[in-house]
Specification:
MetI-like fold
Length: about 280
């Protein structure tokens, strides 16, 4: 009896190790490559922040780092023309982003929810606005304003930034709308909610992250745009245009300070967005 029991017991084989010794070092390839790419992409930002504290002897930045100073932070607005250009950028960006977000959200809702004649043509126009080179878009906007005898300046910059930002917002919102669960809206209607109440109570909270993402994207695109703005600005200066003009004679260190301020504001906005989404997820 015991012999038979012994014969039917299967042979237990030792399994190979999950991470064999010769393959353990390969697990560091992807993390190492990721860290190197992050450092490569972020290195210009680190250099900009560092040279905002460079104690140079003159008023134009050099490649040599002379030491740390806070003088450029104290005198950040003491360069003629720079405060006005920075102010124009900070005025145009939020207004153009707000208007583009409003129009783009409506576009995204329509494109993501309804099927109508001419939908493919509208899709083509939206993606064409994203794919077309900026120099082509800028020259066409300039021709339109000149033929319409519109004076180039603050208003033409604002209209141009609204125009090229709408497509980005519409695509962002449309992707969110197509992934919504329509049964939630139907449940709201079953609970006697009107279409308007259902939109504000159900649909709008669900697409709010996409709307915020579209707004931030439009804001950043407007803030750092140079090519299109250069065509339609006229005598109005923005921060990118001022930096481009100043680099011919040397860029002052205050430009690094303002770039650091903008980068810090972008980080704060991104953190607020992340924490806001986490709170909504927990609720």
């Amino acid at each position: 009896m015991s012999a038979t029991a012994t014969e039917i017991v299967p042979e237990v084989r030792e399994l190979p190790p999950v991470n064999p010794p010769h393959a353990r070092w390969t697990r560091f390839i992807l993390p190492g490559y990721t860290i190197l790419m992050i450092l490569y992409l972020a290195s210009p930002i680190f250099v900009m922040i560092l040279y905002g504290f460079n104690d140079i002897p003159g008023d134009r930045q050099t490649a040599k780092f002379w030491g740390f100073t806070l003088d450029w932070w104290k005198n950040v607005f003491n360069i003629p023309g720079l405060p006005e250009a920075f102010k124009n950028s900070l005025l145009i960006a939020p207004f153009s982003a707000a208007i583009a977000t409003t129009i783009g959200t409506l576009f995204g809702l329509a494109l993501g929810r309804y099927r109508f004649r001419g939908l493919r043509a509208v899709d083509f126009v939206i993606f064409l606005a994203i794919a077309v080179p900026e120099i082509v878009l800028g020259s066409s906007l300039l021709s339109m304003f000149v033929l319409g005898q519109v004076r180039l300046g603050f208003a033409t910059i604002l209209l141009s930034h609204i125009g090229f930002s709408i497509a980005f917002v519409a695509v962002t919102v449309r992707a969110r709308v197509q992934g919504l669960d329509r049964s939630l809206e139907e449940a709201a209607q079953d609970l006697f909610a009107t279409p308007i109440v259902g939109f504000y109570k159900v649909t709008l909270p669900l697409i709010a992250p996409a709307i915020l993402a579209g707004f931030l994207l439009a804001f950043v695109l407007s803030l750092d745009d140079f090519v299109i703005t250069n065509f339609v600005a006229g005598q109005t200066n923005t921060f990118p245009l001022w930096v481009f003009g100043a680099q011919r004679i040397g860029i002052p260190p205050q430009v690094n300070v303002m770039g650091t301020i903008l980068f810090g504001a972008a980080i704060v906005a991104a953190l607020v967005n992340v924490f806001g989404q986490r709170r909504r997820g927990r609720a």
